[in-house]
Each structure stands twice: as C-alpha cells, then as structure tokens.
C-alpha cells in the first residue's frame, strides 16, 4: 500500500464527520494507514473528544479498544494492517465492521494533477494502487487535458514501475527490459496478484508474444527470456514441424509459466528476439554472446539442438547452415551436375541471408567463392579450344576469376567439416585446371614456335608500342607495372580500383581488352626487361630504365625535353607518401609518359604463407597515392605485369631446375612439363630451349609461397588494363563488367556484348527470413549517382523474353503521365524495358554488377540510370524500384497495383 494513502488530519476529520453524521453516538473510528504520520493526540468534533492511537499490531488494537471501555473519550485507531488480517471480533467492533481508508482516487488525481479519472481506470484498482506505491522521485508527468485516462496510467506503470523505456509493452521492448536485472527485481517484489494482472494486461496491450515474455519473468525465468525467444526460432522454425520439434515445444512450456505456446505466437516471439539480438550484436557483443550461449543450453535442454540451422539469428544457426551449404558444394563439385550446383547455391543463399552473415564476412566470402567454383565446374567446357588465342582469351575471361576464387578457399574455415568440404571443391577445381593447363601448354608450344605473332595475346615486348604510345599521343599516361601480377590478383584489384574513381576501358573496335603474354621463361630478368625495353631482351633495372627512356615509339609521343621516365621500388620512398621525384613526374602534365614498377606481388611470393592477402588497392602501399596523383593530373593509367605466378599448394620439388618452374632442356619433358624452343624463349643463360612446368604441382626450387617461370596460363598471361577517371580517349570506351555469368550465380545468362558502342555522355559513378541478397556481388562496385540516362543504351533483351506485363506497363496511361512528370531525364522505353526484363529474370533482385552486365553498360554509369528510372516507376513515391545496398530491387506486386496492371500472369 502506498504511503500516499496515509491519512492526514483533515482526512481523519472528514471520515469522523461522516461517521458522526450517520451515528451521533459512535465512539470508535478505524482507519488504515500504511505508515505512521505526525497526528495530534486528540481530535474534538461535535462536542466529543477522540484520542488517536497508532496500532501496528492486533494486540495493540485490542488494548486500545479495552481502554476505551473505561474512558469517556472516543478512539480513532490507525493501523497498517489489512482488515483481512484482523480477527473477526475486532472488526466486529468497528462501525459497519469495516476499516476505513483514504480515497485512492483523490491521491491519484493529485499525483497526476488531474481533475478527473477515466472510468475504465476506476475498474482496475490494482493499477491505481501500483501507481500509488511506486511514485518516482520527481513525480509523474501531468495528465494531458487534466484527465487521467487508462492509457496514461498504464504507460506510467510500465515506464516508472517496471522501468520499460517509453512505456512500450511489445515483445521486443520486454525482451530488452529483461536484460537488466533491476527491472526483473522490481517485478519480483510485486505481490503475486499484481504480477498476474500485469501479465494479463500486457497480453492485451503488447500481444500474446509479450505475455509469454512476462510469463517467463513471473515464472522466475526472466533472465532467460531472450534466450527462450531465440530458441523459439528453432522450435517453431518449421511450418510442418517434425516430431522432435513438437516434443521440444512441450518441453519449452515450463519456461514461460507452464502455458502451451501457439506456433504463430512462438514465431512472433522469435522474430522479436531476433531484432533484439541484432541490436546486441551491434552495440554489446558480450551480451550477445552470453544470450547465444544460454540459447544453446536451452535448445539442448529441450532436445532441439540438432535443428539449430532453422534459426535465422543464432551463430549456432549460421554454422549449421554453413555446414549444410559447404557439404552441398562439395557434392556438387564432385558430380559436376548443374542440378547439384543449383541445390548448393540455394543452401549458400540461406547462409548469406542469415543475420550473422555480416559478422562472418570473411567466411561468407570463402563460401561465395566455393559456390562460384562449383558454378564453373557445372558449366563444363562449352567448346573445344583450337588456338592459343582462344585459350588466352578463355583464361582472361574466366580462368582468372576461377583462380581468384581458388585462392580464397586456401583460407579454409574454423569448422573442420566445412574446411574439408572446401578441400573437395578445391581438389575438383585443381583437376579441371590441370586439364586446361595441359591444353594451354600444348597450344603455347605451337604459338611460340611460330614466333608468337598477333595481338591475342599481345607479347609483353609490344605492350608499350601497341597500347601505351598511342594513348600518350592523346593524353599523358602512367604505366603501372606490378611484378608478378596474375589475372587472379588483378580481378580483385580491379574491383577496388573502381572505388578510387577509375573505370576500365576497352577498344571500340571490338577486339576486347588486351592480354599480355610474358617472355619465356616467365621470369623477371627476361620478361620485365622485355616489357620495359620494347623488345625481347634481358637485363637489370638500369637496362630497364634505359630501354624505357629510349624506346622510339615512346619518345615520339613525348614532349621535347621530357623523355619517358621510369621509377623502381627505391624511388617510391618507404612511407605511404610518394617520393618527391615520383610525385612531381606524375603530376607534371608535360611529362607524357611515366612508368612505375611495384614489387608487392612478386615479393609476397617469398613472404609468409600464413597470411591471406586480399589484394585490394589498400593492400598495395602507395598505389592509392599514385592513382590519386594520376587522377589529379588527368592521366590515363595502364596497369600490367611482366609475368604472373602460381601459388604453392601441395607442390612436389623436382630435380635439375634452373629456376622455380623451369629447367634446361637436357632431358625430355616429363609429366606436367612442356618443351619450349625458339620463338620468344630467351633463358637467363642465353639458351633458346627450355623445359617448363605447366602443372601447378611441380616446382624446381625450395618451397615458398609461390613461383613463376613456368608455362601455366597463371604465369604466362598478364592483364593489360587501361583505366580512365574522365572522358575516354578516342578509340576507347568504358568496358562493361567482365564477370562471367557463373560468377554472379546466373549460369545460362547471355554474355555481355563484346563490342559496346561509345556511351553518349560521361558520368560519375548495392527484415524477415530469409534476408535475400545476391551473394555473387562484386565486393567493391563503384559509388556515385550522376544522372546519366544513357547508361543502359546498349541493353539488349532477346525478342520474346520480356514478360507481358512489361509491355502492358509501357502502354499504360499512368506510365505515360509519369514520363511527363520525370521530364527530359526520363530514360527511353527500351531502356526501361531492358531494366525490368533483367530484374524479372532474377526474381526482382539483382546486383548492380549483374544488372550492368545484363544491360551491357559500365557499373560507373548505372547509378544515374537507376535513379532516373526510379523517377518514372515510383508512382506516388511508392517504393517500386529501390537500391538496397549493392542490389537493385523491384517490387513487381506493388508495381502492378500502382499502375493498375492486375495480378501476376
């Protein structure tokens, strides 16, 4: 009982006046007071004198009543005892056999500064007494309008008595509240009948899921409430639950007060727990881990731990899904069947859609790479490779992506069975790579004997003449040579370079991106000297610098007094900032040609094999600074390598090697080797015949991180990428994304057009279960948002492939009105048609990289196009077309409603 109900003198006198008015001869008044106050010893009223007595016990009350029998004065008895606690003979001596008490409603009106009380509240005395017993130090907020209604009183009880923030009584708020033992302690100190009344009221206000939370708290399991909610995500995770889960639901009942849990209510509680765990994982990882550990114990207690994969929230569920997905990928890699690969991708998407995916980004990355490899394996060979040009183009277009994914799998996983599944995928990929490498080496042998002519691939000694010099005649050029740059490394680096404002270019004549071919053997002394000297040669850094500065084609493209300049590692300085001479040369617009040699890739081959290098632009010291300075100077950047490399993965050392991956031709080539003679062979010792390893399993040197010098495509072929941060030079245009369809998880999609036309204008530049995302997104697509409605100008949609509703939309009056409102920035209908067809083909969600490839447009131009399309499609600001992180998402159902197209057809 609240101390506020202790009567003061005025209230005692009013009660006494009322008594004497009814019975002028009355001699005793009994009133309840929770505490003793400072009262006068006597009160005189209507000529009678009443003594006031504080009676904390029944014995004290009997003594005072006995004293009154021998005294002429009346008696006012004040006691903290409830009438129900007093003996019947004592109560019988009270007027009307009742214990009077202060009017609770008057006290409540005073507390809330109200002049009236909601009749609905008057029917809930327990709530009024609860508010009176727990008045906060600074009082309650005054009732709005001077009327204390039921909602205000209930909100005050939740906020001030139970400590619920903002007086919210929904399941998520209650789960958060249970994390603080103070609130649970407040609840535990309340009388049982009040606790039950609170639970009933919360069930009405916050829903049945909220009632379960308070039921757990009332049952003394409040500290486990969040864990119980998360366990519900497993126990009620199946629409048609297996027997084990039905039994587990029964075992869960005692934890929420012994009541049966309706499956829908259990799922609602699980969703609330999921939201709370999300916040904890972000704001309080320690509490999140504790909640997950307790959930695991509860799942074990109810015997549902085997179904943990049903949970979209628990790390335990993430790990279970990861195991299932990895096992499916391992099987698909071994069978090579498209159906198995599709089933595995479904499992992978469930992992990627899990709430804890963001906390396991590196593991998701490896899982995604395993899925990509499986897609490649299921695809198989589309056609026989007949020429070395076809083999080189095939490796550049797909093989580099495959090897990048294979490298990612080297990181394995902390779960042994997942790591074992990745090994199965890697083994299958290695077998396929070996077969392709053998074919490549055979074709390389014939191409080399024929003199290594042609532009596909382009011998490294011709890169400066064919690519750099023509570009330098129009714009200043920076040649950035990464020693040991393989296609696998470049595929990763290229994505992150885009973040720095660069886009890759391709010739407009349809030849596609250039592919470089290292000199043979593929070692630095030969291949880098040949690249920088413009002829097949060998030499050190001094020879490279002299050859670069004196190459006629480069000199002809340079300004008088500003010959080509080449910088090596020692010139770059040791810190993140560039050396003064390098900085000045790159920034000098008159210096038409600058070359920089960066040794990070080749050096890492001798580094630790316990590091997983991601090869982003940030991993290369000073590269960001180099590119920034080049961008400020308006330079075109040409990125290439002198040779590639293979990584050590269970290699076997062979005797007689002159280098890491090649030997003299003293004996015939064995398994995994090829003999190369004449043509572009120029061994360090002067020999023109060598035996080189094509199998990744062979090495001739001591074991280290990686090797080069052999005849595998990973070593022989290098990218020749032309980058621009502004308008492309004449004869060049921005290249569409290079990823093959299986890289995006879209096997069977048409490849992008190989000969895109020049875009019209330049431009700047991706919760419920499952959280569907496109797992095959490139990690670092560009950012930006310039309005470029010409971005999708090259989109091609096969005849008859677009769903009928798209044509109905384009003919509708609402669409025509939207185009008028969008003004001149509205994309043409064919571009809208292509956009919608691409989205419809992928179920309404596609990555920006995937959409750019489907439309045949550079990623850099996509943001402006999508923004313009949204202005047309988002009728009345409805979110029909949205950008969700790295994905573009179409709500087809909402589009049909807004444009009155009818239901799905």
TrEMBL record:
Domain Alkaline phosphatase-like protein PglZ N-terminal as annotated: residue spans: 13-103
Taxonomic superkingdom: Bacteria
InterPro entries: BREX_PglZ (IPR047992), PglZ_2nd (IPR058881), PglZ_C (IPR058882), PglZ_N (IPR058880)
Stretches the record annotates as Disordered: 726-799
Entry protein name: BREX-2 system phosphatase PglZ
Gene behind this protein: pglZ
Occurrences of domain Alkaline phosphatase-like protein PglZ second (ranges): 170-312
Domain Alkaline phosphatase-like protein PglZ C-terminal, residue spans: 802-900
Organism whose genome encodes this protein: Teichococcus coralli
NCBIfam families (alphabetical): BREX_PglZ_2 (NF033446)
């Amino acid at each position: 009982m609240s101390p506020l109900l202790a009567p003061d003198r005025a209230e005692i006198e009013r009660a006494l006046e009322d008594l004497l008015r009814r019975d002028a001869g009355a001699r005793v008044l009994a009133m309840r007071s929770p505490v003793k106050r400072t009262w006068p010893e006597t009160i005189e009223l209507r000529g009678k004198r009443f003594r006031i007595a504080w009676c904390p016990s029944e014995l004290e009350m009997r003594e005072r009543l006995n004293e009154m029998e021998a005294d002429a004065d009346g008696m006012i008895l004040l006691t903290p005892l409830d009438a129900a606690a007093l003996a019947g003979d004592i109560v019988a001596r009270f007027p009307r056999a009742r214990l009077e008490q202060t009017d609770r409603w008057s006290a409540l009106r005073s507390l809330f500064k109200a002049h009236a009380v909601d009749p609905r509240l008057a029917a809930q005395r327990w709530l009024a007494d609860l508010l009176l017993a727990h008045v906060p130090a600074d009082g309650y907020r005054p009732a709005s309008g001077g009327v204390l209604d039921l909602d205000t009183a209930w909100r005050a009880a939740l906020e001030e008595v139970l400590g619920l923030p903002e007086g919210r009584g929904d399941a998520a708020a209650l789960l958060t509240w249970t994390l603080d033992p103070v609130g649970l302690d407040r609840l535990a100190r309340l009388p049982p009948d009040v606790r039950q009344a609170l639970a009933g009221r919360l069930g009405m206000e916050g829903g049945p899921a909220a009632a379960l939370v308070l039921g757990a708290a009332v049952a003394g399991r409040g500290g486990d409430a969040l864990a119980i909610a998360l366990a519900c995500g497993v126990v009620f995770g199946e629409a048609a639950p297996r027997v084990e889960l039905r039994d587990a639901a029964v075992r869960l009942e005692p934890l929420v007060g012994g009541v049966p849990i309706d499956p829908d209510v259990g799922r609602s509680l699980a969703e609330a727990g999921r939201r709370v765990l999300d916040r904890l994982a972000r704001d309080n990882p320690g509490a999140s881990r504790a909640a997950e550990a307790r959930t695991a114990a509860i799942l074990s207690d109810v015997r549902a731990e085997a179904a943990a994969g049903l949970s979209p929230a628990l790390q335990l569920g993430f790990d279970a899904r990861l195991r299932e997905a990895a096992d499916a990928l391992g099987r698909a890699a071994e069978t090579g069947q498209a159906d198995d690969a599709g089933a595995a991708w479904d499992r992978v998407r469930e992992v990627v859609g899990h709430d804890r995916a963001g906390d396991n980004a590196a593991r998701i990355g490896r899982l995604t790479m395993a899925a990509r490899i499986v897609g490649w394996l299921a695809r198989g060979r589309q056609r026989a490779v007949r020429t070395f040009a076809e083999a080189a183009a095939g490796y550049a277009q797909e093989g580099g992506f495959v090897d990048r994914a294979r490298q990612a799998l080297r990181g394995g996983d902390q779960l042994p069975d997942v790591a074992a599944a990745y090994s199965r995928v890697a083994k299958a990929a290695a077998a396929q790579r070996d077969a392709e490498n053998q074919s490549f080496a055979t074709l390389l042998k014939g191409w080399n004997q024929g003199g290594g002519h042609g532009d596909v691939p382009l011998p490294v000694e011709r890169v400066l003449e064919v690519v750099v010099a023509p570009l330098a005649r129009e714009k200043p050029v920076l040649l950035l040579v990464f020693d040991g740059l393989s296609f696998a490394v470049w595929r990763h680096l290229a994505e992150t370079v885009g973040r720095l404002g660069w886009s890759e270019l391709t010739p407009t004549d349809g030849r596609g991106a250039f592919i470089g071919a290292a000199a043979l053997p593929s070692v630095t002394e030969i291949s880098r000297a040949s690249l920088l000297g413009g002829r097949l040669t060998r030499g050190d850094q001094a020879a490279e610098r002299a050859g670069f500065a004196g190459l006629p084609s480069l000199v002809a493209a340079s300004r008088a007094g500003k010959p080509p300049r080449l910088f090596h590692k020692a010139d770059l300085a040791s810190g993140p900032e560039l050396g003064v001479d390098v900085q000045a040369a790159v920034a000098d617009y008159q210096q038409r040609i600058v070359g920089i040699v960066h040794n990070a890739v080749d050096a890492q081959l001798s580094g630790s094999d316990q590091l997983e290098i991601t090869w982003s632009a940030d991993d290369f010291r000073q590269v960001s600074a180099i590119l920034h300075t080049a961008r400020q100077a308006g330079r075109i950047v040409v990125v290439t390598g002198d040779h590639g490399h293979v990584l050590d993965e269970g290699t076997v050392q062979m005797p007689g090697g002159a280098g890491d991956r090649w030997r003299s031709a003293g004996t015939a080539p064995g398994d995994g080797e090829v003999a190369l003679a004449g043509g572009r062979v120029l061994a360090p010792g002067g020999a023109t015949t060598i035996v080189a390893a094509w199998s990744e399993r062979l090495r001739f040197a001591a074991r280290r991180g990686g090797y080069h010098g052999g005849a595998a495509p990973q070593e022989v072929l290098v990218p020749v990428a032309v980058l621009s941060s502004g308008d492309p030079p004449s004869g060049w245009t921005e290249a569409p994304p290079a990823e093959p369809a299986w890289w995006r998880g879209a096997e069977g999609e048409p490849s992008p057009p190989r000969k895109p036309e020049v875009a019209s204008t330049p431009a700047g530049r991706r919760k419920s279960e499952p959280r569907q995302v496109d797992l095959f997104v490139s990690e670092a697509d560009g950012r930006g948002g310039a309005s470029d409605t010409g971005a999708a100008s090259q989109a091609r949609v096969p005849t008859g492939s677009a769903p009928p509703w798209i044509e109905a939309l384009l003919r509708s009056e609402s669409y025509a009105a939207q185009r008028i409102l969008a003004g001149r920035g509205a994309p043409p209908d064919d571009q809208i048609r292509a956009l919608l067809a691409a989205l419809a083909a992928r179920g309404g969600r596609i990555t920006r990289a995937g959409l750019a490839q489907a439309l045949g447009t550079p990623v850099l131009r996509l943001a402006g196009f999508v923004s313009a399309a949204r202005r047309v499609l988002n009728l009345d600001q409805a979110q029909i077309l949205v950008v969700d992180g790295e994905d573009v998402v179409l709500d087809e159902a909402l589009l049909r409603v807004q444009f009155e197209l009818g239901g799905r057809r």
